[in-house]
């Protein structure tokens, strides 16, 4: 089985980095007690089988702030038990908290749920877009997709961005055509 994983970093015209403008991004990195990424295997008949995941019931949430230029490498370093969320929890909590299911929180012990009760979106952040081409039309290249989005919201054209394939991008058996 092969994954034609693609990563291309692209940045729009950015302001020069200065002590007051570090192009920082803040997000939450979740580390679960189990896998958060789907996995693939080959069954006895030789077919590719997808196993869904992304069921986080307990684990750790870590608030991370870093230069956007380092964000692609952070994505690359994530393990199958890690996922990124783009909302953050209140600054009254430490940078690392425990995660539990809603209704089992213990705020005094910094145990919160991954719910709207504890996570918000504010200020500059990350917008993750998952683009799946339509089988009936011409697929967009990354530049064409960006242009289409910028035609709706022009400020997008001035944003820093990363283009990369998803975890499942291009999964196929060797010798067979990729689905990417």
Q: Would you mind describing this structure in some detail?
A:
A five-stranded mixed β-sheet has the order 6-2-5-8-9, with no helix packed on it. Strands 1-11 form a two-stranded antiparallel sheet. Strands 3-4 form a two-stranded antiparallel ribbon. It is flat, with a radius of gyration of 19 Å. The protein has one domain (7-164). With 180 residues, it is mainly beta. The protein is 10% helix and 29% strand. The two termini are 14 Å apart. It contains two helices and eleven strands, in the order βββββαβββββαβ.
Task: Catalogue the unreliable spans.
Answer: 1-21
Overall mean pLDDT stands at: 81
Q: What structural category do the secondary elements indicate?
A: mainly beta
Reading the helices and strands in chain order gives EEEEEHEEEEEHE
Question: Major β-sheet, in short?
Answer: 5 strands, mixed
What is the gist of this entry?
The protein is mainly β and 180 residues long. The chain has 2 helices and 11 strands. 10% of the residues lie in helices and 29% in strands.
Which characteristics define this entry?
mainly beta, two-stranded antiparallel ribbon, flat, disordered N terminus
Give the topology, please.
Elements lengths: L6 E5 L12 E9 L6 E4 L5 E4 L7 E9 L3 H7 L4 E4 L2 E2 L6 E5 L10 E3 L5 E2 L21 H11 L7 E5 L16
Parallel strand pairs: 8-9
Antiparallel strand pairs: 1-11, 2-5, 2-6, 3-4, 5-8, 7-10
